[in-house]
Specification:
single chain, 238 residues, alpha/beta, Spore Coat Polysaccharide Biosynthesis Protein SpsA, Chain A, eight-stranded mixed β-sheet, 10 helices, 41% helix, globular
């Protein structure tokens, strides 16, 4: 059975955040989708939660690997990649798909709105949303949520699994060379700031800034130069 959108979520011990994301998907007015969870070996209730919501399950790995594995079994012509710690606001899918088609985009990402605090929202607007909108036609950025035509994704051979950090930005920039990229204006993605809280705002922001600098002048980050960790939130989740 085919559907309009395949929603692909890489996970690793996401029992705290995943149910909120899946519930926000379930509450969307748009229903013609499938959910694919690519799990990297969770030891908590992640798989149990995914099964409860009827998601398709498969073995994943680091985010790029999980996303690529999910795309291989996706039945839709549109792929929506989401991080596990995001939420979809009301009518997000309907509004995003409508704008994606009206603007004849091949790949798109979203403005990010922190769930937790007004101060965080102000900082995200200043240091992420405004810059990515300003650079939309010059330098593509895509983080935490990516909507892309499956044919584009396949031409690009998916996410580059050799990249250690910002493989999502890399995908968007490669895709922009063969099709139209855009930031969706009519729907914003609600996101967690757990990494900033765990590692510190200044340290995390500096890491992202230096990564951007590296990508522009030296190419994708293929070493562990920035010591970017995954699944180091487990104590907080418990």
């Amino acid at each position: 059975m085919t559907c309009q959108v395949s929603i692909i979520i890489p996970t690793l011990n996401e029992e705290k955040f995943l149910p909120f994301l899946l519930e926000s998907i379930k509450k969307q007015d748009f229903k013609d989708y499938e959910v694919i969870v690519a799990d990297a070996g969770s030891k908590d209730r992640t798989l149990e939660i995914a099964k409860k919501y009827g998601a398709k399950l498969l073995k994943g790995g680091l985010p790029a690997i999980g996303r690529n594995q999910g795309a291989e079994i996706a039945g839709a012509k549109l792929l929506l990649f989401l991080d596990a710690d995001v939420l979809l606001p009301e009518s997000f899918l309907e509004k995003s798909l409508k704008e994606f088609r009206e603007r004849k985009l091949g790949i798109a990402s979203f403005q990010l709105v922190p769930i937790e605090s007004k101060v965080a929202r102000m900082l995200f607007n200043l240091f992420y949303n405004f810059p990515v909108l300003f650079l939309e036609k010059i330098l593509a950025h895509a983080a935490m949520g990516i909507l892309v035509k499956k044919e584009f994704f396949q031409k690009l051979k998916g996410f580059d699994e050799t990249i250690k950090l910002a493989e999502d930005h890399d995908l968007a920039r490669r895709a922009k060379k063969i099709g139209k990229f855009g930031i969706i204006k009519g729907a914003k993605l609600l996101v967690s700031i757990r990494r900033f809280e765990k590692e510190g705002w200044l340290k995390t922001a500096l890491k992202y800034f230096l990564c951007e600098f590296h990508m522009i002048f030296f190419g994708p980050v293929r070493t562990d130069l920035f010591h970017y960790k995954f699944n180091h939130y487990l104590k907080n989740n418990k």
